[in-house]
Amino acid sequence: MPTNWEAALREAGLRVTRPRLAVLDALEAEPHAEADDIVRRVEAALGQTSPQTVYGVLAALEASDLVRRIDLPGNAWRYETRVADNHHHLVCRSCGRVEDVDCVVGAAPCLTPGDTHGFTVEAADVVFSGLCPDCSPLPSDPHDQPTRKDTDD
Ligand SMILES: [Zn+2]
Ligand SMILES: [Zn+2]
Predict the structure, then answer these.
(1) CA distances from 62 to 69, 73, 86, 140 (A)
(2) How far is the CA of 70 from the centre of ligand 2 (A)?
(3) Residue 148 above 60 pLDDT?
(4) Is there a single domain that holds both residue 79 and residue 91?
(5) Is residue 63 part of a domain?
(6) 29: CA distance to ligand 2 center in Å?
(7) Angle 54-75-38 (CA atoms, 0-180°, nearest 5)?
(8) Whole-structure pTM value
(9) How many angstroms does the Cα of residue 24 sit away from the middle of ligand 2?
């Protein structure tokens, strides 16, 4: 079900504007999008925009916790609307594909450092890097098909 972004913006105390809605729509359509991809999507949706507009919107949305910025090593900043949990990311070091990794605890911080050095830990952000199946030299396992169990009828 698509999120009611107008309500979410109002709840966050932000004015509902077409660029803001377009950015949120773009991120819902393409999670972990880079800012450049978001600019392209917003441009397509609104007919025109500027990178400055989109960056400004992203900064406002991030400050209001409506989007989360992900800083992956070797990548441009990426953004996503999945902010409510403390999930982590898998990144392919070859093609840059990014996948979410659900954390077991689901709430921040889901990991505790062996030594906190006196810090109050508020969040844990883990990046698993490696090769995705497409970039992996090993043939993918033919038995590794997704199983669907949601028979609902
Ligand atoms: Zn890859
Ligand atoms: Zn994510």
Answers:
(1) 7, 20, 15, 37
(2) 8
(3) no
(4) no
(5) yes
(6) 13
(7) 25
(8) 0.78
(9) 14
